[in-house]
């Protein structure tokens, strides 16, 4: 009923990198976004009136009725979304990559849409810096999903059809509401990449040219004319070479 909070499953889907698209590219991105999201809901047998959707520009907010089994969402729907994205992205120069925030809680309906702290949290989780960093680090993967701590404890942890809790990694994330625990998974990978490890991995030093020579002597900074230094038996001396190759 309008104005009263009802318990539901909140799914917020965002397209990664949509801000880099031009105005002429965005409509096609949105078409693909709705195509894969709705195909996954249909394959998981989640349809209206148990499915409410709200357009968010570069994303879709979906609220599912309380009688939709939560494991069907974190299991079947998420896997269908992953496989549909893989199929859609074949041959695309700019693949569609999605971040999905998942939470359960009370949602209030009115004439303008859906609201509530549970809605806010689902949206924040999918849009957090950690989710963006994990998807960026997971090269070749089209999807990262972020489950709230409550959803993980109540639903994911017990496992089920296509629900594998061992494939989730816990991170503390900073949100507007404060520091929260969240669980991240990249379908198709045994574990999502750790963004902290990826960011801090040492880069290989560029190779430096090695001095050439034999024994205990070699020449540095030598030119076809001018001067250079050489070291022999631990002593440094200067070698002068004119432009005709003669020594001075």
Could you please describe the fold and organization of this structure?
This protein is an alpha+beta fold. It is 28% helix and 32% strand. It contains 6 helices and 12 strands.
Quick rundown:
With 248 residues, this protein is α+β, with helices and mostly antiparallel strands. The protein is built from six helices and twelve strands. The termini are far apart.
How would the global form be characterised? globular
Beginning-to-end CA distance, first to last residue: 99 Å
Mean pLDDT reading: 84
Q: Give a quick account of the main beta sheet: strands, pairing sense, barrel closure.
A: 8 strands, mixed
Radius of gyration computed on alpha carbons: 28 Å
**Helix vs. strand class:** alpha+beta
Counted beta strands? 12
Helix fraction bin:
25-40%
Residue windows where pLDDT falls under 50 for at least 5 positions: 200-248
Count of DSSP H/I helices: 6
Strand content: 25-35%
Instruction: Give the helices and strands as they follow along the chain.
Output: EHEEHEEHHEHEEHEEEE
How does the SSE layout of this entry go?
Elements: E1 5-15, H1 26-43, E2 51-55, E3 59-64, H2 70-89, E4 98-110, E5 113-115, H3 117-127, H4 129-137, E6 143-148, H5 149-154, E7 169-175, E8 178-185, H6 195-200, E9 213-214, E10 217-220, E11 226-232, E12 235-241
Parallel strand pairs: 4-6
Antiparallel strand pairs: 1-3, 1-4, 2-3, 4-5, 6-8, 7-8, 9-10, 10-11, 11-12
Helix pairs in contact: 1-2
């Amino acid at each position: 009923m309008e104005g009263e909070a009802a318990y539901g499953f909140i799914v917020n889907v965002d397209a990664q990198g949509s801000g880099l698209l031009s105005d002429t590219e965005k409509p096609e991105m949105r078409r693909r976004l709705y195509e894969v999201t709705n195909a996954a809901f249909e394959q998981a047998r989640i349809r209206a009136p148990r499915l409410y959707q709200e357009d968010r520009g570069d994303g879709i907010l979906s609220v599912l009725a309380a009688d939709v089994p939560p494991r069907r969402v974190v299991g079947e729907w998420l896997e269908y979304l992953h496989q549909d994205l893989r199929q859609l992205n074949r041959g695309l120069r700019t693949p569609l990559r999605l971040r999905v925030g998942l939470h359960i809680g009370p949602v209030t309906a009115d004439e303008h849409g859906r609201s509530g702290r549970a809605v806010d949290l689902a949206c924040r989780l999918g849009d957090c810096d950690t989710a963006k960093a994990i998807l960026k680090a997971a090269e070749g993967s089209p999807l990262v999903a972020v489950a709230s701590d409550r959803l993980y404890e109540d639903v994911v942890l017990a496992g089920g059809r296509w629900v594998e809790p061992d494939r989730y990694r816990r991170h503390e994330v900073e949100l507007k509401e404060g520091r929260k625990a969240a669980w991240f998974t990249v379908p198709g990978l045994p574990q999502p990449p750790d963004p902290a490890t990826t960011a801090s991995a040492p880069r290989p030093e560029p190779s430096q040219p090695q001095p050439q020579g034999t024994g205990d002597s070699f020449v540095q900074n030598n030119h076809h004319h001018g001067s250079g230094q050489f070291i022999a038996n631990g002593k440094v001396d200067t070698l002068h070479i004119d432009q005709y190759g003669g020594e001075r």
